[in-house]
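Format notes (please read before filing issues)

Several people have asked whether sequences and structure tokens are stored in separate files. They are not. Every record keeps both together, in the order shown below: the sequence lines, then the token lines. Line labels are part of the format and must not be stripped during preprocessing.
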Amino acid sequence: MGERETTTFRIRRYNYEPPPGPHPTPPQQRSAAPAAPQPDPSTAWARDPQLRKTVAMVLAAALEVIDTRRPSAHLREHVTPPVLRYIRAARLLTPPARPSRMRPSVHMFCPTDEAAEVATTVMIGPRIRAVAARFERAIDGWSCVQLRIL
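Then the structure lines:
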């Protein structure tokens, strides 16, 4: 019988961990000058009372247009043309048995002093739907530039 060659394998240990003992400390970074305090964006709407009024009025009017209780021309000054087209497309063919209404909870976030993002729920007919809208400051006040009913 023939002799077999034997192969030996050598397993090397890798050092994934630092060696024991004191570890070098990273260099300390200089701290930058403290930034000026920024206003809380979630409460920016409180500084502009016209914003809350405009949001409530536009969302209520949009629901009335969808319910066919108000002509869409009433919104022309407060929404952009794409939003007006969206509201006209969402208009119901027949008025619901009970009018749509906005739920009492309206959540507003202002990422900048020039924009506000709004979320609320509405009841359209028997269904509760979510509404997301974005308002931006225009020359003559606030204007709705995005509106989606989910």
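For reference, the curators noted about this record: The mean pLDDT is 80. Residues 21 and 68 are 78 Å apart (CA to CA).
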